[in-house]
Amino acid sequence: MRNMMPLAFMLLTSVCVSAQPVGKRPYEMELAGRTKDEHPPFEDFQSDAPWQVEGNGTVAETERTREWVYGNNWLWENDTSTPRVGLHVLFKTPDGKETAVYLCTCNWKEWFFCHKRLTPEQQELLHQPGTVFSGIKITNAGNKYNRALFFNSLTLFKEEFKPLSFAPRARRGIALFPGQDPGVNTLQDKVLPFPNREDTILPDSAADGSKNTVALNGQTVVFSYDGSDGKLSITYTPKTGRWTDFTAKWNNEPPFKPLQDGGVLFPGKGDGELPEKAELKGIQQVGNKITAQWHVAKGNAEADVAYTLSLRGKTLVIDTIARGGKLGGVTYGCVTGLSDMSSVCIPYYAYAWDSAPLVVMAKTGQSPIFVSGHTDWYLSNGSTVKGAPSARKD
Questions:
Q1: With 7 labelled, which of 105, 163, 264, 391 sits at a CA distance of 20 to 30 A?
Q2: Quick one: CA dihedral 323, 326, 330, 336, positive or negative?
Q3: Is pLDDT at 80 greater than 60 in this prediction?
Q4: Is 69:147 a contact under the CB 8 Å cutoff?
């Protein structure tokens, strides 16, 4: 049998139709000029050899066709008339045992290319001399109405990982965080057109003639904004290592927590879990910026984290840099201590998976107030930026 490392398998699914026009490859492949198989098919399903169909609680038949058609259900939809079938390729080893290699679950519309890499255990099992391809197994075929699965080709091949190379691209127009990899943006004589300022996405929140000040008293920091539109103070009392340590106050209204349970996350449930322990290693002021160094831990996991803080206009900026250890993410937490809270959408502003960072509209005392959090995608070295907005009475 041929070498089997990754396993590639083309599957197309649709409701059953009667006409049999000469099929074409999916339009994406046609436009890209991919009119030939990248690897010789191990089974092209075009021979006249008979196929035997066995069923358990279902009725099925096979026939040759020249159709290319699309799938008929999406992963995020719940079409009870079309259960999502599972696809497996069967191999029989010399001892007569049959092994099912799971490929995928049919949860798409349009065409689909199933590509599966065999595990080391599967490779060892199927590389035995005399191992043969013995069939295709379809599970969860509980449809009330007739449905069709269209198989184009089955290919077994050894995957080659050729070296990748990229031409240098224009360098970024801003300085990156220390130690951050510029990637392929290394051309010195060409600069990207945006961002074109160090403040990147910083909102224009300062009234004309306003000023910012910062005061470090022991380990307590007070950031202040004084403008014609009002006064804002944000106090940082480093006790927990979380962003719960921030307290905000607008004019003479009651204080509130703008970042309750925010901060770095260790890998865990959901998007991650907050540290259980935190030790302040030092806090210092350089100009209008304050840097707090923390050692955080959860169970056996630990990491060193630096928060560099500044207030620009009415915007609190938190540069978060982790060195050593393994962290899973950063969260803003939630806003607490306000009243009459609701959320407001910013049109056309979306992060991954269409999630949006909404604006909190509320009151602090008798004063209306708006609070929002934003991630600087130009500077962030995160894998994914997500918005997870929700509003409750508290």
A1: 163
A2: negative
A3: yes
A4: no
Residue 385 · residue 350 · CB < 8 Å? no
CA dist 170 to 166, 167, 174, 186, 247, Å?
Answer: 12, 10, 12, 6, 41
- Cα angle at 15 between 25 and 74, to 5 degrees? 80
Strand partners, 291: 284, 308
Please say whether the beta carbons of 93 and 131 come within 8 A. Answer: yes
Please state whether beta strands 170-171 and 187-191 pair in parallel, antiparallel, or not at all (unpaired).
parallel
What one-character DSSP code corresponds to residue 29? H
Q: 33: Cβ–Cβ under 8 A, 6 or more apart, which residues?
A: none
Euclidean distance between CA atoms 154 and 164, whole angstroms? 27
Dist CA 227 CA 370 (whole Å): 17
CA atoms within 13 A on the CB side of 290: 25
Q: Report d(CA 194, CA 391) in Å as an integer.
A: 34
Identify any residues that bridge with 177 across adjacent strands, giving them in sequence order.
none
Query: What is the pTM (predicted TM-score) of this model?
Result: 0.69
Burial class (CB in 10 A: 0-12, 13-18, 19+), 296: buried
DSSP track, 92-117? E-TTS-EEEEEEEE---EE-EEEEEE
For 334-366, write each residue's pLDDT tens digit.
Answer: 999 999 988 888 888 888 777 888 898 999 999
Other beta carbons less than 10 A from residue 297's beta carbon: 16
> In angstroms, rounded to a whole number, what is the distance separating the alpha carbons of residues 74 and 130?
39
Give the model's confidence band at 251: pLDDT under 50 very low, under 70 low, under 90 confident, else very high: very high
pLDDT in tens, 8-61: 333 333 333 445 555 667 777 788 888 777 888 888 887 777 888 888 888 888
Tokens coding 128: 């035995």
